[in-house]
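re the bet — no i am not wrong, look at it urself. input seq straight from the record:
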Amino acid sequence: MKCLLIASESAEVLFYWTDPEFELNIQEQYGASQEEGEKPPAFEDSINTLFAPIIISCSTMVDRLGDSYTSFSTENNHTYVLHQFEECLYIAVNGDQEEGEEDLKRKIYVMKKMIEVQFGMVTLSSTLIRKELRPQDTEQRTNLWKYLQSLLETYSRLREQDQSFLVEAVERLIHPTLCEQCIEFLERRLVQQINSSVERAGEEVLHAFILVHTKLLAFYSSRNASTLTSSDLLALIVMVQNMYPSNIDLEDTAPEDVENTSAPDIFYTPEPSPTNRDSGTDRDSVNSGRHEESRHEESSHVGSGTPVFQFLDPDIQMAEDSLRTLEAPPPDPSNPSRVFLEVTLKEGCYPMMPHSMYCLPLWPGITLVLLTKIPNSNLAMSVYVFLEAFAKLEKRLSEGLEGSAARSQTSIQDLRNKLDKFIRALGTSDIQTSQLQSVWTEFKSRAFTRGGPGFSRDLVPWCRTMKSQLCGVYRQCFITENTVGGGSPQRLSPSLQDRALTMVQEKLMDWKDFLLVKSKRNITMVSYLEEFPGLIHFIYVDRTAGQMIAPSLNITDRATSELGKGPLAHFIKGKVWDLVNTSRIYLQKGYSTVTLRDGDYFFCYFLWFENETGYKLEVKDLPILPNDSAPIGMLAWDYYRKLLRYYSKSHQGEVVKCYELLTVHLGVIPTEYILQHCSQLARKLWEPSRIPLL
């Protein structure tokens, strides 16, 4: 019983996703009231009818009270979490107690992140993003919603199955020699050959990396490329997994059988994502670093499957809202996806800059990803600079700081000159700028004309209109030409992509079976048991690099993990997932150390800071986050980057790094030995974590 909805303030549905149980419940609820023989209401209409009172209530509270509720529970134990982003209201619902408020909040923020990666700065204009999320063309809207639904399902599957998405950090394959060889190959042969080719159509490869399922084998960035943030990299991995989902049955097949399954149709027309999800949580008392204790009830998670699609008779006319009856077209590897990622240069940080992403499947489970800079990307930087300038001006004027705005004549005059030049440059292209020119002319007459109102509150609506017009120009340049299921008309030639694919395949041909097995058994607990008796599991995270190391936790009906097979293995996995959730609760309250004894097990969580040489820095109180803050993590909102900035203020001129360690021990081990183990384990893992991504 799960649902996620995006709606406008006028209760118009901009996007929805439901699991089969929620969909069936809606159909039974609204279909039962129909007269015999009468056609049941369209599903989208039913969704709208169900949520309209909540949406209207939220809008009314904001208008009259300036505030709104963020969550509530109903008598039938349904939990609703709501969050307003500009004029778009996100509502996440759970009716089977499998997800708590924090889980629903995280799902909302992840959905927002994926939409930002898809649409870039268009999301900064409420009017434009409403049009993008709900196209007038029925087929286009069907394909878009289907794609966004599958992204959400893919993320949910990864978070329930993959430790890297549980802690939101990238997991690397631990094989230093092969990693180094692949990085060198990407740098000296692949990227260099592509960037020197005349077939690249003006594009330039900035980043190239190889994924084995969700694990990173090698990553290379060109010298003039910005660092790819962990948040963006995790989002891209979700997109790759959505295009070419990991097949659990294939993963558990013996290596000698993998060769027989590597037919092209496996990865050009991937099977749907796995539908069985299992995860569990059990909670007991928590002893924090500040000696606080809490009791939690036990609970278990049984995930839901993906929606069931029905195939209709071709003679039946499909209704406009029958979105689930259409399958999205299979991905074409030669068509790049337009993605919008953060870029950091000497001039500053520029979010949501356009890139082209090429996902080239080497073999099932192994993918080469290329991120390229497109020829007109500098235009996006200019748009962002202007948007930021008008946003700051709007804020000052809204707060009644007209004098401050007027005194900053130098920056305002500079903005005027640059924007005039920008609009003139656009006039020589195919971009429609008449509306932008008209609004800008009116803005100048009001702000700079001697008889005009000058810099006053009257300019606030014009600042907003200017931002909307700039987003419209951005949309014309980077969104309109790039539709879901299609690619940008300007791209690397198919022959150049084929050569790149062949080069990497030849490099990894002798390694592919090993890599597929290695991805399931990256590191094992066996190598740690002699040195750390009683240690069951651990997760070590380098939050500065956004990378993690953990023994494999692969539990399927066909494979036996180091934890065994059956209820015990699932129980331990559920405990690990629960420990991560519990640690986040206390981290939000400002605790950097949590210890928890639960029956036969003892759990520990530590967060600490070091300098570049590995010297542990003194403990400092962490900021306490409000209850309505964004969920702690790196995918939807990079909490750790903000935490590093906060801590670095007291260590000026020193490189500060942040680490986390989570451990699970047998409860019979004395506490003093457990704490000693944690300290020794952190030192032991310090060196492997320094393998660079380059």
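see?? The radius of gyration is 26 Å. told u. also The mean pLDDT is 83. so pay up
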